[in-house]
Amino acid sequence: MTIIVHHLENSRSQRILWLLEELALPYEIKRYERHPKTQRAPDSLKAIHPLGKSPMIEDDGQVIIETAAIVEYLVTKAGGTLGAPEDKTGAKLYTQYLHFAEGSMMPPLFGALVINRLGFLGWPAKKPILGMVEDLLTWLETELSSRPYFAGSELTAADVLMSFPLEASQSRAGLDDRFPNLQAWLKRIHDRPQYQTALEKGGPYAYA
C-alpha cells in the first residue's frame, strides 16, 4: 500500500518527504495550505486526526502522528535503512538527536516565532529566547567539529529530524557565519538529490 503524507506547506512535514525519498518508499502527497493571515493549518487536517497537525501519515489503515514517531516507523518499514549506526557511540548519538530536535531545539524556536509576530510587545523576551537558541547552536557547532553528520560519518534519520530546526534557525534565529560547521552540514544535506526531489514534490518551503 502506498503511504499517504498529509503535508502542510512550510512545515516540519517536509522532512518526511525527504526521508521517504532517501528510503525509496512509495508515497502520495496530500497538500494543505496555511491560512494566509494566521498561518495555522486548515481544519481539513482534523478530518484525518482530531489534533489537525502536520506531519501525519496513513499506512496500512492507520494514521501516525508526531515527526519522530513517523521517522522511526518509516525507518523500520525500510528494514533499518538510515537507522542507528551499529557502534555504541553512533547509536547513542542517533537516539539523542531523534529527541533533541523536537525536545530541545523547537521550543525556543517556536518562542522566537511568536515573539517576532508580537512586534514591539515581544521585545523584552526576544533577547533571552535568542540567547537560548544561540547556546544550543554553539554546542551543536562543536558536535559537528569532528564528524560530518550528527550520528557519525554517514547520513541517518537523526539528520532528517535535525534539518527543520536548523533550517528555521538559519532563517530567523541567528544561524550565520559564526557557525561554519552547521552551515556546511546544511549545504551537505541540501545538495543531496533526494532532498532536491522532495523539495520539488513538496511545493513551497521557505527554509531550504
UniProtKB/TrEMBL annotation:
Name of this chain's protein: Glutathione S-transferase
Family listed: Belongs to the GST superfamily.
Cross-referenced Pfam families: GST_C (PF00043), GST_N (PF02798)
Domain of life of the organism encoding this protein: Bacteria
Residue ranges annotated for the GST C-terminal domain, each copy included: 87-208
Domain GST N-terminal stretches: 1-82
Transmembrane segments: none
Listed Gene3D superfamilies: 1.20.1050.10, Glutaredoxin
Originating organism: Parasphingorhabdus cellanae
CDD domains to which the protein is assigned, alphabetical: GST_N_GTT1_like
InterPro entries, alphabetized: Glutathione-S-Trfase_C-like, Glutathione-S-Trfase_C_sf, Glutathione_S-Trfase, Glutathione_S-Trfase_N, GST_C, Thioredoxin-like_sf
